[in-house]
């Protein structure tokens, strides 16, 4: 008991006593590493969390003035709350020329593809280009002065930059986009902490909700769109807490009522829950110590573990109830110890195989379950005998009569010619179900974000033009210039996809900072025009330029190259620095290129085909492929687990009886697969992991019944009553996962619901039929 108290205190400190909660709500953290290139994995994590602590808000109103006033009010309200480290609504007074001036020294090295093609034509006429530039309409956005860029080369290049293409434009010091239905003003906020911190989540959501209510009241017709990791993390936490409470509460109440009805005393109920609580507390403590955090998926799974951990105490309590006045605690322990150890071994085998999967969440779930099972079993061995010295009431007569009726009916039905006919019929019924089985390994089945959040994110993306960043190219080279050259080769293909309307565009550094090789080639194209300064002077003078401006322009030639490392230090580079992975010399340099739009993965792969140093990284597709690979392996693992149990059961029960003991869990798995086929439920890795547990739990039931029957010859049906009690408690916990908000847990729960149900009904067949009169 003292050890249990120490573990409980340690668990409480780990969960509540530290500054940062170990509960991990970042769903990405649960996903396994999928990239063979370690830098690609780092890039995927970096990109996923580039804006992880940033909240993006769009204030919308049909009236432009109301939208801007509401955005200003929203920024002022949020800025007063300490949960936000920074809030950006109104921009400081900003001159668009600040975006132009840094590039003037490099103007002759920056050319668009269209200008390059024009300059390469033999009939290029500089005077015509001057005339066209002079007669261009007035530029309202980022534009160069005519005297600084008389041919428009720099102007054309600036028009292709991300800030020029963005639908968001500075108006009244606010970033504003106009759509058919009104105006949208961007407000961004950075959290003063992590989006996955529970306390930060609650404070930030409270502040945002209050601010939204205020602006909607003060500015009628205003509504706010929101997106960011904060909202997804909070939603995932809320769903998980609801699942934990629902599964935990319903299973606890159900198990409590069952135990009270069967054992007819509250004391066994309290001891059963004490044993289970010790297992769950120990599992939580070890999981946090080993992994440093605990996933939401593990917490919900832990609530469901209640139904399996309670089995050990149920078997001991059943032995006590069946012993009557002859009860002796140590003798009762000797009676149930072989069954409990055998059951524990089969369960640990299933969970150990689960832990072999290179998937952080599944490994943690396996660790949690194994520690919980061992702790719960040890509590039965060392704690319950000391707390149960006196005899108990026998099991309720109604439960024993019902169990005996079912046991005899099932045993007689599967014996003799009835059994052969039944086996043939069930096989014929199962085949169509097996035939309809199919699979779906899409990682998006792991989680189910709220449709409202997804819709808002999509709307914000459409309005602001910001891509989703779920797919990207990793471009590597020996140095930064080789990386930029390889980006340029990739972007040539991406441009072709954009022209064909397969892609909306892309975001990459080479479009903002050309390689030195490209810049030198650009200068080489312009060199003939500047080879004779007097001729250039004549062209410009004829177009009406003043002598002072002409001298300044000619003297600026050839300018200096634009160097990436220098550009990254400028203010204009701030939003794009995350695209540069760095240049450490020894391992080369790398950058990211983000395709924007809904192009298929095959098209994006084709764009990178045969390009040296260019790799398409698609985290979702990579995890889906991994799920598919391990789903295919899972059937082999399941067969391996069965083969490992065979010699154990053969040693314990004899080789002739072994098939009978093993048949219930194996048939339960087969019938479960058939039912999933009839339900048109696509198989995932989680279905197969659940089938592993069906094997372990089903083997437990066969062991409990087979080992316990000799001790209840004086009361037929009592042992099967305890097995049914164990099965129903498991169904009340694991089965409830079938209604979880997490798709992965729904798959898990539905499979266990079917598998445990079928196995519990088939278990009587594991015991040879006895004379009905006995």
From TrEMBL:
Superkingdom of the source species: Bacteria
Topology term for the membrane: Multi-pass membrane protein
Transmembrane segments: 244-263, 270-290, 296-318, 339-362, 368-388, 409-435, 634-654, 661-679, 685-705, 717-742, 748-767
Keywords: Cell membrane, Membrane, Transmembrane, Transmembrane helix
Alphabetized Gene3D superfamilies for the sequence: Multidrug efflux transporter AcrB transmembrane domain
Domain Membrane transport protein MMPL: 180-388
Subcellular location field: Cell membrane
Record's protein name: Membrane protein
